[in-house]
Specification:
The structure holds 3 protein chains of 3 kinds. By secondary structure, chain A is an all-alpha fold. Chain A is built from 7 helices and no strands. The chains are: A mainly alpha, B mainly alpha, C mainly alpha. Chains A and C meet through α1, α2, α3, α4 and α5 of A and α1, α2 and α3 of C.
Chain lengths: ~190, ~725, ~100
């Protein structure tokens, strides 16, 4: 077990007033608010829109983490493609029926689970408080760029990269098969 | 060691039995019967050869031994599967195989209409094999194998027509009562093995000292002999274990002839004679004269008891059954008396005429379309002449007509009984009393046998028209054995006349007691009295004297007719309670305890647990997920605890702990326990990471623990403060 | 600069919110959205540590996660659509054929 052994130096309380921090807080609030909104909406369309907002906020956070490439990918793929897909499906599926929010099955187990998660969060908080590094120096240039990430992807992660394409192919085919209209004779063959 | 392949004698019938039972159904009838009869004939042949080998030499008899293999060998005793043919077993073997052969031949005719032909012959052969093992065995255990075997065969054959409930019941009754006797027999074997160390007949003869050793008030021989006699009581249908024999008449008639007249029931007598040193009074006084006396009393009482019951029976076979019991009583008295060979003599003659009587009865039943009620018979002498002639000869023999075999053998028995007084005068004419009782029984025998004869053969037919029309003589295959047996019944007595007791000498026990020829007068008188009485009462049918008697003493008549209600008595005392206990066990223990509680309960337990567990699967995936989350949380919690590792630095008089992670002004909540020089209590529990110590050497044990995560670490170090 | 731990807190909170959506909501679509939220939280964590360790492999993994999430969303939504066809409902409480 390697202890996170960092130097115990009480340096200046860093980053308290830097602009990046303010941005962080702004987008963090948006993200959390959006997430809460998503989770509590009855109307699925509203939930989707809120989630889109959350994703944008998260993309901003990515930027603050020097992850430019991924921020853009987040917007393009997540907020752009996946959420659009969600919108379509919501429009097809949703019937505006009331979703009885608080009538849960097995409420005990679920509440316990949520509490368990909460406890972990709390502990994590404590852990993080003791372990945070005090200073962060900025990463080198090229960090988080397309080129940088690309080099890793096509270098160390070549196999997963290629495998992902197959995964996507499988997913596309599978989604098509599952969701297509079944003709009459297929309907009769269905269980 | 083998003088002669004696084992072939029982083996051949056993092999034939195996074949008949296994594949007999597929064989043609003639093949089955040929197999059966042939094997017995072969056994007879071999027995004759062995017998002549044994007896043929001039002078003394040379017994033949054969040890087939060592069966049981322990440190204390050894039991071999071994056979011996000496004079006694030789005579027995000839009787068994000879009479057995005749009965097998008879059966071909009698059972010709039988569906289970091969099974019958299979069982019959099985019986023969077992009986031969019994008589040829050279020790009690080997004989016991045969003893049990004949018991089993008796059961199988009595209940041969098992579709009828009564037949099965009769078979069971025979077996169970036999078993009671066998238990005693086994105990006797055990006793002898422990007390004497051997059950080999030859060796027992030489263990007189051990056998005379005192035991429980008497001696070993007394108790051993008594227990063995209990077995004999069961097998040979003496008081109190005779009740199975009348019911055993449910089996086919040739079976009754073979098993319940000539062979199996005589096994007990054989045993008593074999072990005459236990029972008998002479030639040299037996080891347990009181036992011998007891045997004689039992035999006597049985003879009388059974004879009285025969007076009122109306079933032809039942009369003969009671007659058998009675005659067996005779045999026991003779065997335990002064002249043991008399028992064997009567055994032999009885085999001839009783087997003949049964076969004749079978012939009569055959003619009468299987009716057995003698009150419905009559006048058969004209219709079945050969059977009638033979039957008459048998009756004369059993009744003791002078010159016939039964006359001489009964005489010998009476003499043996009376001779006890000469050996043991202290017993105040015990022998005389016994012989007088037997004389009376002889008269009774004559009476009821002639009653039977008159009712069946004399007078006019009382039969139903239908039945009467079918009366016909039996085929030769049945009448020839009858004739042979009749011949033997007539001349068979010549081997044991008082003037020259061939048989007695041959059996190696020359009588040291003299039997006055006046005894023969008594026998003749008994015969005549019985014949006269029967003639007066029954010639031509049931006549007036009997009817007057029946009317005058109805209670006596009923009592005797119902066999003194002994069966009912046994039923109440023994059978019912046993059944009650058995049912109790079955219901409480088996049905309730094991079935409901243990097995059923277990099943219900599993079912219940399963029901509870099934409820987890309620189809709500989110619930499953929730459970997963809880599990994951626990795992993460356990795995991700930060250790309470630390490093220690000593500077001057200050010991500093460098523990992981204090940052941002918010200290990790660590607790410290400093122990200096092995003190028990913590010197300091300050949530502070340094301690000031005095100069000098110190041993410090430091324990750090993290209250939040529950992890801790401790270390000891030597510190030199300077 | 911004302490990395901030991002970690944020990610944790988002993850918890997503988890509660998955566990507590009945509409299948909302559940799927909760899953996406959880994946995003994971991505955030990855990137935070990548930033702290100056290691681009975190980015690469996050990239792959996004791609996988896309595939999973497609198939999952297709299933919802398929179920909706026969059952005319997106309420997961009414899809309990596997129940004992």
């Amino acid at each position: 077990m390697n202890p996170v052994r960092a130097t115990v130096e009480i340096g200046p309380q860093a980053g308290m007033a830097s602009g990046a921090l303010i941005l962080f807080w702004v987008f963090a609030v948006i993200a959390v608010a959006g997430a809460l909104a998503t989770v509590t909406r009855r109307n699925a369309v509203t939930a989707v829109v809120c989630l889109v907002g959350t994703f944008f906020a998260i993309a901003a956070e990515f930027l603050l983490l020097y992850a430019q490439f991924l921020a853009v990918i987040q917007v393009l793929v997540y907020a752009g493609a996946i959420m659009v897909l969600f919108v379509f499906v919501v429009m097809v599926v949703s019937r505006g029926e009331a979703d009885p929010l608080w009538k849960l099955q097995g409420p005990v187990t679920k509440t316990v689970a949520v509490l368990a998660m909460g406890t972990l969060l709390w502990r994590g908080w404590h852990a993080l408080r003791s372990f945070q590094p005090a200073r962060l120096d900025p990463p080198p240039t090229g960090f988080g760029t397309v080129g940088g990430v690309g080099q890793v992807l096509l270098g160390d992660f070549l196999f997963p990269f290629e495998a992902i394409s197959i995964l996507l192919l499988v997913a596309v085919v599978g989604a098509l098969v599952i969701a297509r209209h079944h003709h009459d004779k297929d309907k009769a063959a269905q269980p | 060691m083998s003088d002669f392949p004696l084992h072939l004698i029982p083996l051949l019938p056993l092999v034939a039995a195996a074949l008949n039972l296994a594949i007999g159904r597929k064989l043609p009838r003639d093949a089955s019967s040929l197999l059966a009869v042939g094997s017995v004939a072969a056994s007879l042949l071999i027995s004759v050869v062995a017998f002549s080998r044994m007896a043929g030499g001039e002078g003394a008899v040379q017994p033949l031994h054969e040890t087939w293999y060592t069966w049981i060998a322990t440190s204390s005793f050894k039991i071999d599967a071994a056979f011996v043919m000496d004079a006694l077993s030789g005579v027995m073997t000839l009787i068994v195989t000879g009479v057995g052969l005749l009965i097998h031949i008879y059966s071909i005719g009698y059972m010709s209409h039988e569906r289970d032909y091969a099974r019958y012959f299979g069982y019959l052969n099985l019986f023969m094999g077992s009986m031969l093992i019994l008589v040829l065995g050279d020790n009690l255990v080997a004989s016991f194998v045969g003893w049990e075997g004949v018991g089993v065969c008796s059961y199988l054959l009595i209940g041969f027509w098992y579709d009828k409930e009564y037949n099965a019941y009769a078979g069971r009754k025979a077996f169970v009562v036999n078993r009671i006797g066998d238990f005693g027999f086994l105990l006797g074997i055990f006793l002898l093995l422990t007390a004497v160390g051997t059950v080999n007949f030859g060796e027992l003869e030489g263990k007189r000292t051990l056998l005379s050793a005192p035991l429980w008030g008497k001696n070993v021989a007394f108790w051993g002999g008594l227990l063995l006699f209990v077995g004999a009581t069961g097998k040979s249908a003496q008081l109190p274990l005779y009740v199975w024999l009348p019911d055993a008449m449910a089996g086919p008639t040739p079976v009754s002839a073979l098993i319940h007249a000539a062979t199996m029931v005589t096994a007990g007598v054989y045993m008593v004679v074999r072990l005459h040193i236990f029972y008998a009074f002479g030639p040299s006084l037996g080891l347990a004269p009181h036992l011998g006396g007891a045997v004689m009393i039992v035999g006597c009482a049985t003879a009388f008891w059974a004879a009285s019951m025969a007076f009122a029976q109306t079933d032809i076979k039942k009369v003969l059954a009671y007659s058998t019991i009675s005659q067996l009583g005779f045999m026991f008295v003779g065997a335990a008396g002064a002249v043991p060979s008399s028992g064997i003599f009567h055994l032999m003659t009885h085999a001839f005429f009783k087997a003949g009587l049964f076969l004749g009865a079978g012939s009569v039943m055959h003619a009468m379309s299987d009716r057995t009620d003698i009150l419905e018979m009559g006048g058969l002498r004209k219709k079945v002449p050969i059977t009638h002639a033979c039957f008459l000869l048998y009756t004369l023999a059993i009744a003791g007509c002078p010159g016939f075999s039964g006359f001489f053998s009964k005489d010998a028995i009476l003499g043996s009984a009376a001779g006890v007084d000469q050996v043991l005068p202290a017993w105040h004419h015990f022998g005389l009393a016994t012989s007088l009782v037997l004389l009376a029984v002889a008269a009774m025998t004559s009476f009821y046998m002639f009653r039977l004869y008159f009712l069946v053969f004399s007078g006019e037919s009382r039969a139903d028209k239908h039945v009467a029309a079918h009366i016909h003589e039996s085929p030769p295959v049945m009448t020839v054995p009858l004739a042979v047996l009749a011949l033997l019944s007539v001349v068979g007595g010549l081997v044991g006349t008082p003037w020259h007791d061939l048989l007695g000498e041959f059996l190696g026990a020359p009588p040291e007691v003299s039997i006055p020829w006046q005894n023969m007068l008594g026998g003749t008188a008994a015969f005549a009295a019985g014949l006269l009485g029967a003639y007066l009462c029954y010639a031509g049918g049931v006549r007036a004297p009997v009817q007057r008697f029946a009317k005058g003493l109805p209670w006596l008549y009923d009592l005797v007719k119902n066999k003194y209600y002994v069966d009912e008595l046994y039923d109440t005392i023994i059978v019912r309670p046993t059944k009650l206990v058995a049912h109790g066990f079955a219901d409480v223990f088996d049905k309730f305890l094991i079935d409901s509680v243990l097995v059923g309960g277990l099943a219900r337990l599993v079912d219940g647990i399963g029901y509870l567990v099934r409820r987890v699967q309620n189809g709500d995936v989110q619930r499953y997920l929730a459970t997963m989350v809880i599990g994951a949380a626990v795992l993460i919690w356990l795995a991700a605890r930060p250790p309470a590792d630390f490093a220690v630095e000593v500077q001057g008089t200050t010991v500093t702990v460098v523990a992981a992670g204090t940052g941002r002004g918010v200290p990790r909540r660590l607790r410290y326990c400093w122990r200096i020089d092995g003190a028990d209590k913590c010197e300091s529990e300050r949530p502070r990471d340094s301690l000031r110590i005095t100069p000098g050497r110190h041993k410090i044990t430091l324990r750090v623990w993290d209250a939040d995560w529950g992890t801790s670490a401790s270390r000891s170090l030597e510190v030199h403060g300077s | 600069m911004i302490p990395v731990s901030n991002f970690l807190y944020l990610a944790a909170i988002l993850f918890a919110i997503g988890l509660s959506a998955v566990l507590l909501r009945r509409n299948a679509l909302i559940v799927l959205m909760g899953v996406e939220l959880m994946l995003n939280a994971a991505n955030l964590t990855l990137l935070a540590f990548a930033r702290a360790h100056h290691d681009l492999r975190g980015h690469a993994i996050a990239f792959l996660v996004i791609a996988t999430a896309a595939a999973e969303a497609a198939v999952g939504l297709a299933i919802v659509v398929g179920i909706f066809r026969t059952r005319h409902t997106a309420n997961i409480d009414e899809v309990t054929l596997m129940k004992h």
